[in-house]
Amino acid sequence: MRIRATRYALSEESVATPSPHAPYPTRVAGSAQADELLGIVRALYAELHRAEPDLQSVTLQSALDRDLGLDSLSRVELLLRLEQQFGVHLSENTLATAETVADLLRAVTSAVALGEAPRRVAPVNVAALAPRPRLNEPREAATLLQVLESRAQSSPAATHAVLLGEGAPETLTYAQLLDGAQRVAGALVRAGVPGGATVALMLPTSSAYLHCFLGVLLAGAIPVPIYPPTRPSQLEEHIQRHAGILANAAADTLITFREARAAGLLLRARVPTLRKVLSVAELLQDGPLGTTPSVPTADSIAMLQYTSGSTGAPKGVVLTHANLLANIRVMGRVVRATDSDIFVSWLPLYHDMGLIGAWLGSLYYGCLFVVMPPTSFLTRPVRWLRTIHDYRATLSASPNFGYELCARRLSEQELQGLDLSSWRIAFNGAEPVSADTLERFNRRLAPYGFRPAAMTPVYGLAEAAVGLTFPPLGRGPISDCIDRDEMMRTGRALPVATDHPRALRFVSGGRPLPGYELRLVDEGGAEVPERMEGTVEFRGPSATSGYYRNHEATNRLLHGRWLDTGDRGYLAAGELYVTGRLKDIIIRRGQHIYPDEVERAVGELAGVRKGCVVAFGTKDAATQTEKLIVLAETRYTDPAARAQLTARVNQRVVDNLGEPPEEILLAPPHTVLKTSSGKLRRAATRAAYEDGSLGRAHAGPALQLLRLALQGVRPELRRIARSAARIAYGLYADLAVLVFLVAIGLPGLLMGDARRIWRLNHHAARWLIRALRIPFSVVWEADLDLSAPHIIVANHCSYVDSVFIGAVLPEVHLFIAKTELQQVPLLATWLRRIGTVFIQRFEPAQSVAEVGRLERELANGNSLVMFPEGTFTRATGLRPFHLGAFQVAAASGVVVVPVTLRGTRSVLRDGQWLLRRMPVSAVVGPPLAPSPAEDRFAAAVRLRDAAREQILARCGEPDLL
Q1: Which residue has the higher pLDDT, 890 or 295?
Q2: 391, 344 in Cβ contact below 8 A?
Q3: Most confident of 285-289, 457-461, 691-695
Q4: Which end of the chain is more exposed for a tag (fewer CB within 10 A), N or C?
């Protein structure tokens, strides 16, 4: 599965399980320790540069990223060597927090002093857990919450997840999962998070993440997963990226953990909508949610998955409950998932392959979900395989680099005793799949029970939820060798022999999942035949409706009923071979150039830093075509050495493409932009090249923090000003309402004519709305004879609903209100003066006397205003209608007039006393008449359903029926 802008941030809390099968020699710390450590660092540094770098420049003060240019995976290699050399166990925090060589020395010294030798943490005995009854697939569930409730009700004591850390594993039952989610939901509701709001989750892998994701849904809000901060030196970049995401999502609340709270506050200062930064501890300390504020439907948004926050407008993929469940169900059927499966995952929970494919898929099918923090895998890859061995896992997944890391880095000692025979499906997705990696992994792990047929390359994208194409179950991977020159020149995938000197190899991602369709189109949108390269488009039941609050990107995504993946590929025998990202492919004079081929070739040269080459295209104003730029990092500073290296780079590009690049840039380390997992950011590098910021050095963490704080001053002042303005307006509005009530109440006491009182109320209500400067529009969809008795039925959102109804209706109407309002003296006085009839709170038809009273009012020529929902809450959504108003209409033979109010809930939500200035509209719908020939009860039901259907279609709120 290919997921855009994928990140594997190395900032998880230190909660990983140490490697139990990697013996290290025991050593004693001594005075030569610093020199010994420097020797290890210098050796790795020399290997990465493949030349004769100035090793004496590597000192204890050298910054790992700025001076030595070590990306995340290079750091992993360095930590492994330090552990082996010094016989210690270093915490995953070392990977995330060490900034200099001196930091590494302190970590090693501390580990030696504490005697923290690698230790074995026993896995959970799965057989000893509470019995796992047969967990049937919840086929009737329409939402993730219904899946959760089904599991918690049918098998509360069954273990859902095992969470691995440096200490004892933590187990989580379905009942505990639901309880934690309810506690989070209760805390969010009490904190004032409105229904439909977006709530960002900036959390590491933990049980708290599972509680918070589902708790946000229970609170009626929308979760937005984002990754936690990485190293301190990258704080500024993290804040800038995520400020754009949170602003686009209009995030109301950010949930994070204690160590990241400072980053959360910096984000709050830069995102105008972000009101609260809450910690997990705050959310879990209170009691569970008493009542559900709103019940999501299949079409409710279940999450926003952001695919890009680096450059341009962030793109938040809108995924509904129906999208997620459709994709989970079809993937599960294809791989034959059952409750007897065990899924082991190290994938981050903010990444949709880890969140949807691994966790939510396990929740749906009742699989045991065993999860470890990503740093547990990155620091010691054998932990992933050991966990599969320990728990007899059947399912697991990784991007291609994870399999490569295992194939290249694991020793025979680490693999000793390993048994991977239980692993029936090894998903490989989220980035391009390498045929060489698959072969290396199969050769390396086959002696330990891994079956090559278990390797399952897949393709997908966030816009499809997760999965789009899977190969046949148990077939194993297949690759296709094609002629490089033919593909570059014509786009035709012409098969050639594997030993062809100009062969390109691509791995099949399989066929579309059942119910999904693929097509490949050319630049004009015409479908291309098999073995012709084109842009991959798809459609299917989990296809997103678009990007959240980004109409421009949505319009580019949707081509009629088809969605543009942004990937290039070709079909062969009905299977998809992805050739690259459309935005990365360089088209120069009609020739398609694949940047990874150029980068791989140049990266093999001595003097070029391994993995630090990027090729990209940029528009040539003179020729109006793209020119090829090759950027390579090197430590060479001597002009003659640099000139020779430039010549070798040029020759290597000519050997591969037949033509030289337009420009070759040799740059110092840390110039090429990468993700936190070491993946090239070609688009961001191109943008930096074009705006002249390429190679600009990072400031120190302290300066970054100061700069961010200063940048946040102005937004924070604006926030304070807006908050003060809202409070001032609210106080003014409350005073205006008080004046309104007095202005109506006092003259009303002196007036005896109901018509005059109502008209006074009508004009005063319109004056109040103008005084509050609330934009108010009224649409009459049909002519209505207000002189004939009728019943107005309206949706109920707020205490101000009656004011807006009064402003709409110039003729006398009697409001039907709950008896509790008589306890509010001033309000009760006003309601009585305009002829309000007070009835029981719930169903009017429960009292024969009250129904008779309402029928007499209609018989006397009066019209009624009723709110058939009976009450309202702060959460958005249209509640079920009570039958009373419609029984009265059927019995009296009068028409029902649906009136839809939109916006009043935002003006004054339940539980708030300060009004807000928000637009309000009212739509007076066509009248609905009972039929004399109908049974009264049947007529009442028909009127109720028809009125509710009209209001639901116009109110812009979800259906809570």
Answers
A1: 890
A2: yes
A3: 457-461
A4: C
Instruction: Report helix, strand and coil shares of the chain as percent, to nearest 5.
Output: 40, 20, 40
Phi first, then psi, for residue 31 (nearest 5°) are: -70, -20
Going by C-beta distance under 8 Å and a sequence separation of 6 or more, which residues neighbour residue 949?
none
Residue 43 makes CB contacts below 8 A (sequence gap 6+) with: none
What kind and span of H or E run contains 256?
strand 251-256
Q: How many C-alpha atoms does 464 have within 13 Å on its Cβ side?
A: 34
Report CA dihedral (921, 923, 924, 927) to the nearest 10 degrees. Answer: -160
CA distance 897 to 808: 13
Dihedral over Cα of 773, 779, 784, 788: its sign: negative
Lowest mean pLDDT segment, chosen from 568-577, 583-592, 798-807: 583-592
Cα dihedral across residues 947, 949, 952, 958: positive or negative: positive
Minimal CA–CA distance to 573: which of 707, 478, 444, 453? 478
Least confident interval from 332-336, 383-387, 731-735, 818-822: 818-822
Residues 455, 388: Cα–Cα separation, whole Å: 14
8 A C-beta contact, residue 844 and residue 882: yes
pLDDT value at residue 128: 67
Nearest Cα neighbor of 194 from 804, 914, 912, 796 is 912
User: Taken in order 817, 823, 826, 828, is the CA torsion positive or negative?
Assistant: positive
**pLDDT confidence of residue 959:** 78
φ, ψ for residue 75 (rounded to 5)?
Answer: -65, -40
Q: What is the pLDDT of residues 659-716, one digit of tens each?
A: 778 888 898 887 887 765 566 777 778 777 876 767 665 556 666 667 667 766 776 7
